[in-house]
Amino acid sequence: MIRITDTLGLDEAEIEETFLRASGPGGQNVNRVETAVQLRFDAARSPALDAPTLARLRTLAGRRMTADGVLIITARRFRTQDRNRQDALERLVDLIRQALNRPARRRATRPTLGSKRRRLEAKASRARTKRLRGAVSVTD
User: Fold this and answer.
1) Using CA atoms, how far apart are residues 69 and 10, in angstroms rounded to an integer?
2) By three-state DSSP, how is residue 140 classified?
3) Phi, psi for residue 16 in degrees, rounded to 5
4) What pLDDT band is residue 85 in, cutting at 50, 70 and 90?
5) In the prediction, which pLDDT does 111 show?
6) What Å distances lie between residue 75 and 19, 51, 84, 89, 119, CA to CA?
7) Residue 74 contacts by C-beta under 8 Å, 6 or more apart in sequence?
């Protein structure tokens, strides 16, 4: 069980890992060992996520989520397979935790009297400046 919060956890069977060759530092090892990890999590079919959380996760994931609702995270930051597995898992958990946070609803407010006054003064000042830039009449 992968712990997301105190009340939410993911079954390890829901996560599929594939290993691939990574680019970057590592010398000849890079060409021989598959150290990069591609983690796939089918968020759309996961019983742990409810519909609003899934919608927020889809927004947060962006291009990392397929049209079928499969979240794909590729980790190739480190030289070892184990560290890349941990990194991919941490990124998945972090993304799900962000999706669990419901954004606060915005309350409509009215502008204060002072802000209205400042806005009108700024408009009047700007109008004065533009009026002074107008055509100059030549009188002889």
Assistant:
1) 16
2) coil
3) -115, 130
4) confident
5) 94
6) 10, 27, 5, 9, 50
7) 36, 37, 38, 39, 88
In CATH terms, 2-100 corresponds, of 3.30.450.20, 1.25.40.10, 3.40.50.300, 3.30.160.20, to 3.30.160.20
| pLDDT surpassing 90 at residue 127 | yes
The predicted model scores a pTM of: 0.63
- Report the pLDDT averaged over residues 69-76: 84
Reading the block at residue 66, the tokens are 């397929």
Q: What is the pLDDT of residue 70?
A: 85
The whole-angstrom separation of Cα 93 and Cα 54 is: 14
Q: Which residues contact 22 (CB under 8 A, 6 or more apart)?
A: 30, 34, 35, 36, 76, 84
Q: Are 29 and 67 in contact (CB under 8 A)?
A: no
Ranges of each domain in the chain: 2-100
The Cα 79–Cα 33 span in angstroms is: 10
Interval 45-71 mean pLDDT: 83
Predicted confidence at residue 109, as pLDDT, reads 92
